[in-house]
Each structure stands twice: as structure tokens, then as C-alpha cells.
Amino acid sequence: xxxxxxxxxxxxxxxxxxxxxxxxxxxxxxxxxxxxxxxxxxxxxxxxxxxxxxxxxxxxxxxxxxxxxxxxxxxxxxxxxxxxxxxxxxxxxxxxxxxxxxxxxxxxxxxxxxxxxxxxxxxxxxxxxxxxxxxxxxxxxxxxxxxxxxxxxxxxxxxxxxxxxxxxxxx
Length: 171
Prior knowledge:
The protein is mainly beta. It has two domains: about 1-75, SH3 type barrels; about 80-170, Immunoglobulin-like. It contains two helices and 13 strands. The chain has helices at about 1-15, 80-85, and strands at about 25-30, 35-40, 45-50, 50-55, 60-65, 70-75, 90-95, 100-110, 110-120, 125-135, 135-145, 150-160, 160-170. It has a four-stranded antiparallel β-sheet with strand order 10-9-12-13. Strands 2-1-6 form a three-stranded antiparallel β-sheet, with no helix packed on it. It has a three-stranded antiparallel β-sheet with strand order 3-4-5. A hairpin with a 4-residue loop joins strand 4 and strand 5. The longest helix is centred in the N-terminal third of the chain and has 16 residues, at about 1-15. The protein is elongated, with a radius of gyration of 17 Å.
């Protein structure tokens, strides 16, 4: 439980630093299929108390879920206005959460060299590769790096153009 709090705190801190043009939300998917989306700028803190997950909002309301009713919870950073001008678009990581192996699906708008970097919450690079001379089109890259349980950030970069997504590894 303490590890979850540390991961969530670090993730929220990192996300708060990211460009304000990006829409960042936390999603809670319940076992009955209900998904609750809360913009992260409306979240004051997240606690785990006994058998419940509590999401404290900035308007002083609190959303409560029984941990047994939660199928998964995750964060998503949607494409910002700046990213729409980039040569890279439609970047999706799946499955998320993952068991350590996941796919990156992205689209290149013009011939490019792409740098893919996976970074842990401490800022250390745990994986990096370059894809050279990619033509316009859709690409899928598989990460089979057997990553440890935790949160990671995946950067897809072409020159100064950058998209950052997060992936959660649960084993």
C-alpha cells in the first residue's frame, strides 16, 4: 500500500510539471464497467484508507471507491495543441496497465527518425531505441523489457517534437 502512495505522489508531481496545454485526467474503472474521469487539476490528493480509495477534489468533495470494486485506475495525458503540430501523432500504449510487455502505436506524418525512451519515476532511462528513416504511416513497437512493477514514462521524440505517455507495470 505504501508503494502505491509513493508511485501516485511521484506521478502526480511529474504530471503537474507537464505543459498546461495537455489535458491530464485520472480514470477509475470499476468491476461493473463504470469509468469515472476526473481532470487532474481538480484533484487535491488520493488516499488509501483501509479498504477504500479516496480521491479528494479541490472543491472539497471526496469520491470514494471500495478497492475490491476497482478493476484498474490510470492516468492519461491527452494530446495537447502543441503536440498536434508535431510530426508524431496518435500515440497509444497498450495494454495499460501492463505486465511488463506492451506496445506503442504511433503515426508519423513525414519521413522521420524517432527516439523512443522509457523512464522510471526516478528519472533514470531504463530503455531507449532509435527508429531511423521511418516513412509516413502507422507503426507499432513492442517493448519486451520485463520492467519491474511501477510507473514509467514513455517519450516518443522527433527532434524538438515530443509526446510523453505513462505506463503502469503491475506484476
